[in-house]
Amino acid sequence: MASEAPANPLLKPYKLGKFNLSHRVVLAPMTRQRSYNNVPQPHAILYYTQRTTKGGLLITETTGVSDTAQGYDYTPGIWTKEHVEAWKPIVNSVHDEGGIFFCQIGHVGRVSNSGFQPNGQAPISCTDKGLAPHIKSNGIDVAQYTPPRKLRADEIPRIVNDFRLAARNAIEAGFDGVEIHGAHGYLVDQFLKDQVNDRTDEYGGSLENRCRFPLEVVKAVADEIGAERLGIRLLPFADNVECWDSNPKELALYIVKSLNKYNILYCHMVEPRMKTHWEKVECLHSLDPMRKAFNGSFIIAGGFDREDGNNAVAEDSADLVAYGRWFLANPDLLKRFELDAPLNKYHRETFYTSDPIVGYTDYPFLEVSS
Ligand SMILES: Cc1cc2nc3c(=O)[nH]c(=O)nc-3n(C[C@H](O)[C@H](O)[C@H](O)COP(=O)(O)O)c2cc1C
């Protein structure tokens, strides 16, 4: 039972628009690469349900908006009827346990290769600048990227429409809302950042132009499903997959202020201290100016433990705190935070393996639930 002890502000309830959250601990979006043939699998029912609490917010792994959106093996989609039907039992199970479930919809853009693309075509992006090969997270394999094809301006409405349809599908699957993936160097982030976006048309150059595609996506999705069901994830300060900006603070402030026009439910920002998905560095930047400038709810993520999550809420740096790796390894994270109990260690080597159980649903609970 959640207490309101000042020592544990993460356990205080919060009203996220129309959703009554019973605490502030959010499941961060995490790709798990266990959706064979891009179809969510029955084993995801257990994975998400294990991490559900009554009145807790969960965000899915990145879910592709179209057949050009993929860049990793076994990641789920939400562009076909089959995907929608496959998500339904997962969403229903989370709802049965009282969870609030948002679907993170995304498109990798140039972080892909022709092997993932329909008819072996080149990936699409705002640019035709390619990516150097990168060492994969297992530290052994090398990810190879095919140089992207720069989208023509007249093609961009079709990609915006893919996001709109994916959001509609997510609602049809039963999700409470969607989060647009605007972080980690993927398509939306590629448009935002001046070191990738080299366009000279109305989608490149000035801040206004670089934000045009992301805001068109926001508007299209908000018009489709309602702004009160829409969040966006942003990571202005990092340089994931060679995607960085020369003035991230200015970009971040500009985009959050622009988002205010659309009255979306939340903005979810990853801490500037997160150099990559997982690497935490000392950093002078703070998200406070963006938190203050944004009118909706503010979620932060990136390197939080119980103590600094509590501090972030106590200091009003955020309304909610999203946990990635600790939640991956501790399905009963909330309970452990309540009791200040020790946490299971996470096993990086099984983050992205395709096994339906190992490293997925076999992390132990604190105690056998009755
Ligand atoms: C296995 C794994 C997969 C991830 N996949 C995604 C993803 O699909 N979408 C996303 O926005 N972030 C993704 N992230 C980033 C997390 O949401 C989070 O921002 C990051 O892990 C830092 O938070 P933490 O320190 O609490 O783990 C992933 C992280 C991990 C560890």
From TrEMBL:
Q: Does the keyword Oxidoreductase apply?
A: yes
Q: Name one GO molecular function term.
A: 12-oxophytodienoate reductase activity
Superkingdom is: Eukaryota
What organism does this protein naturally occur in?
Answer: Acacia crassicarpa (northern wattle)
* Entry keywords, A to Z: Flavoprotein, FMN, NADP, Oxidoreductase
Give one Pfam hit by family name.
Oxidored_FMN
Q: Which cofactor does it need?
A: FMN
Sequence similarity: Belongs to the NADH:flavin oxidoreductase/NADH oxidase family.
Q: Which residues form the NADH:flavin oxidoreductase/NADH oxidase N-terminal domain?
A: 10-342
Name of this chain's protein: NADH:flavin oxidoreductase/NADH oxidase N-terminal domain-containing protein
Transmembrane: is it a keyword of this entry?
Answer: no
